[in-house]
Amino acid sequence: MWINMSEKSKISIITACYNAEKTIEQTIQSVINQSYNNIEYIIVDGASTDGTMDIVRKYEKQIDIIISEPDKGIYDAFNKGAKNATGEYVQYLNADDYLMSSDVLDEVSSFLYKNRNAVLVYGGILIENEDTGYKLLRNKKFTFKDIQEGRMIPHPATFLRRDILLEMGLFDTQYCIASDYDLICKVYMKYNDSILYYPKLIATFRTGGMSSDFKNKEKVSAETQAIINKYFGDNKYEIPKIDNEAFLKKWIEKELFEDKSIGDLLVKRKINNVALWGTGELSVILFKELKSKGIDILYYIDNDKEKQNLVMNSVPIMYPEYLKEHYKDIDCIIMSFEGRHEESVLRQIDSYYLPSELLIYSWRDLIKEL
Question: What is 148-198 written as a DSSP string?
């Protein structure tokens, strides 16, 4: 079926970026090389301090709107783009992402033309970690129940009518990471019957952005849970916490592919002497890691009286009150247990009135910082 190009929808593509010199050129090229020409391209930069804007200016004649100024976060940048857009549909393609092929928007525009009542259309993405080589296809239809349970349609593969985006009040900037989920919830609640799945890959999504970054996953979960409670409080669904396996996998990944370790992180902070709180298998692994970097573990701490005064790896296991008289010997305490007991242990340490300069870390937090 031949379709008059002038009858096809104008698509506004918005790229929000900040210090993205390593990836933004591929993003830009994937847009300006599209065979479909009814595109409005908008770049919203948060006043980058690297070479991002030098790259953007190389293509300024092919970019419709360029904004470069400080913003209040990615959703503030998204909103700036939407307010300047004039297309019927809006797609957000961030500086870590790029379109799959040069004709993908031509195909999407034909689908939109044939489904003119669609409020939102979404397709699939290829998720890629360039550091590890890991790839995953995410290309499926999402039900309203999926959305209610915290699952999110692929953001770079979503085309939302601009008038609906404005009707929904744009992105709620009270959320730092999950405002796109908040927006999608509102759209699904009102226009569920006008949301269509387009079963083709639209874009490649590089892991490492705000919502995919491992250190932000717990914040994503917290914000997503708050949004679920706000809109779907009666379904009682709870977002699962990141389990220890995920942290251990990230630890291994950082060591093997990026040559980053907890030991190196502590050495940079001039940590020489450590106490490990906990005596399980995890503390043994951490012991080996720290010793390999020249960090001394002076003692373990454990609340289990049966373990106290035993010796493990030639290091004594001491009772918690031991800290009161021997805290000066160490630079930090690392909570190295597998259970989620950090808050109770911190309260216990607080009760000893140790100096505030004494550093206290959780092994999970250290992995987030790698």
Answer: HTT----GGGEEEEHHHHHHTTS--TT-SS-HHHHHHHHHHHHHGGGEEEE
